[in-house]
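Design a sequence for this backbone.
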């Protein structure tokens, strides 16, 4: 499972991708993934929200994740 990180999410983690090994316990849903990110990278809890896209489509918390999914973490965007 590959996570692509953008904007402040990339800054929080310190890199633009995270590869979750099939040997590790993978999150079963988007909600579980969000909890995992906050547990591993506490600064995620400072974000008002962040979107998750699974295989190029925005996903709700109840979307089930698979081992081969490509997941994008998309933080809120501000503009001027």
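Sequence:
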């Amino acid at each position: 499972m590959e996570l692509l990180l953008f904007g402040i999410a990339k800054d929080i983690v310190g890199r633009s991708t995270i590869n979750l090994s099939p040997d590790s316990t993978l999150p079963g849903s988007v909600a579980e993934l969000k909890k995992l990110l906050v547990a591993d990278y506490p600064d995620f809890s400072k974000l008002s929200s962040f979107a998750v896209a699974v295989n190029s489509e925005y996903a709700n918390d109840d979307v089930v994740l698979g081992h081969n999914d490509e997941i994008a973490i998309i933080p809120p965007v501000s503009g001027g």
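The mean pLDDT is 90.
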